[in-house]
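If your schedule permits, I should be very grateful for your opinion on a structural question. Thank you for your consideration; the sequence and its tokens are set out here:

===
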Amino acid sequence: MNNEVVMQTAGTLHGQLQRGLGRAARRAADTPGAGEYVYDCIRRDPRWDRQCEERGLYYARLMVDLELPAGPVAEHLFDPADQDDGDEWRVQLALDVLAELVRLSRREAAVPLRRYAEEGTHWFDALDALADLGDPALAGGLDALAADRCDEFLLDCLVAGAAGARGAVIESWAARQPRIADALAKRRAAGRPRRPAGGGATVRGGRAERTDAELLDLARRRDDGAVAAIFELGRRRAPGLLDLAEELLPQRPGRWGGAVCRALREYGPEVLPRARAWAATHGGCAGIGLRILARHGTRQDIPLLMNELHGALERRDWGDAAGPIEGLGRLRAGEAVPLLKDAWTESAYSYLRPRVLTALTRTAPHTAESFTVEGLWDCEEGVREVAVRTAPVTAETRIRMQRLHHDAAEDPGVRATAASRLM
């Protein structure tokens, strides 16, 4: 099966389902053929950034609401292409959907999930999902598979975060499999705090005693000590770090550049003049300049942030839109509302929408109401959290908030906020 993604326009139900929009979830029940669009989205994972964006619970809820069987999802898992396709993401969304179906009380979805753990190419992802469900009955008998197939790295990944319900599954496996028990013991030992050397004295390697010039010299060496020196410069808010940023960032120097960007977050509004120059020149420091403006800028920075957001939306560069959206929302820039509405509707990057909704509620509360209502059905947990906190309570939204509150598959924070709104 060809799994190439073709993004449909945002005005179509298919395109809205690909984007994970709440309006699509509300329309689907009244649209013939909506189920095939849901299956297509699961097969051809439409996420712009698969590491950040959420879709599993969204599509699983749609399958429950539309009474769709899990069979077509299982067929995708066991398509012959699974043996030949090198795409590690080919089945990840399908596995996520099956796991969420189980959480939504569709326990028959565990059958293909278990079978894929036993037979599938990406078996570890299915095994991990079953452990995460936290039900020893569903994961029973898979301990031998885990012990036999997992190398040391995968075993460590498997036992990481073995707490709560997931912990019960891992503990049940460890009771029968010495390799899993050993991995669990090592993980717990590694997590215990260690006594610092020298009778409890904090070893700083003399960084606090060095001058700014000495620290800058260390930072320019790009060795193991450079990162610590960069962070110390940031802690001091040393002006020399700004010069270092102009030297390093245009060269894209990997982790040292990342350390400079993180260290600059220690600075406050005093860095704005330099950040404005960086953002305006579109050079190697433009990215960090825009992030600083988004965090600390004043109303004089609204035109630049507007231009950046407009350009990012035109280029369909959803990642570049994030900073300007946050900054315009913080500054309550009413002139940004049309662009924010476009970003909400058009963006193929659902992880952007929590920022958009927050910005809309700050800049235009009345206009934002319809978006907060729609957000109660959104694929992104962050959107639902903003929505349950800010959506007007009507007969329709009360029913939706009740469902979110009682849904065991929902994020605990969203459930708690929904409960507080219903009091």
Residues 193-205 have pLDDT under 50 and may be disordered. The chain has 28 helices and no strands. The chain has three domains: 13-191, 204-274, 298-423. The longest helix spans residues 178-191.
